[in-house]
Amino acid sequence: MIRVLLADDHHLVRTGFRVILEIEDDIEVVGEASDGLEAIDLSRRLKPDVILMDVEMPGMSGLEATRQLTAEDGPAVLILTTFDRDDYLFAALRAGASGFLLKNDSPEALTEAVRVLAAGEGLLAPSITRRVIEAFATIKARDREATRLDELTPREHEVFVLLAGGATNAEIAAELRLGETTVKTHVSRVLMKIGARDRTQAVVLAYELGVVRPGG
User: Of 26, 91, 115, 190, which is the most buried if we count CB atoms within 10 A?
Assistant: First the structure.
């Protein structure tokens, strides 16, 4: 079972998410929090696999709670908000969130996002991904030594570039003529070496560094 914690200051919103998620045979809602501090406390006690985190909550915000949880290697965080704003999006990604969805996305998108994050991968809606690419492609590259890119082998660098372009493991395997099991191993090593917790963070890092650019 995928263990999910809900963090939102609106009881009706949490109830709606619970109903959507608990219809699924492989998902269990283990707790509900109404603010960031409660989310951190429940996360430490209940050990969920994924947290659905609202951005704006009284007391500690969802963004600050996400920063604290990811700093202590907590569960994957899926940011859910009614506000389609770039500042929230980029703040969430920099805080360490593994995914970002709007609350008006479909129930199917929500359950799929939970499964993707529980599997250790990141998720962004296609429209959001385009905005991330456009924004980070113009940001000055950070110190490359700090990200240990020089530790990547030539093959791992190829995998990193394709991963950052949004390719799935199957697509990477086809492009590089490798088995999918081999690709999974390469992806795991790339994430470890660059210090990214999942594919979403790897994509953000790749565009910050200018490793890839829009269009290829």
Answer: 190
Give the CA count within 13 Å in the CB-facing half-sphere of 117: 31
* Token digits of residue 16: 């709606």
Supply the pLDDT for residue 214. 53
Tokens 């998720």 — which residue?
A: 123
Closest CA relative to residue 60, chosen from 41, 82, 87, 88 = 41
Residue 52, class by beta-carbon neighbours within 10 Å (0-12 exposed, 13-18 middle, 19+ buried)?
Answer: buried
Q: Does the pLDDT value for residue 133 go beyond 60?
A: no
- Please state the pTM of the whole predicted model: 0.65
The Cα 148–Cα 165 span in angstroms is: 20
Provide the 10 A C-beta neighbour count for residue 79. Answer: 24
What is the CATH code for 136-209?
A: 1.10.10.10
- The CATH number that domain 2-125 falls under is 3.40.50.2300
Which of the two residues, 156 and 151, has the higher pLDDT score?
156
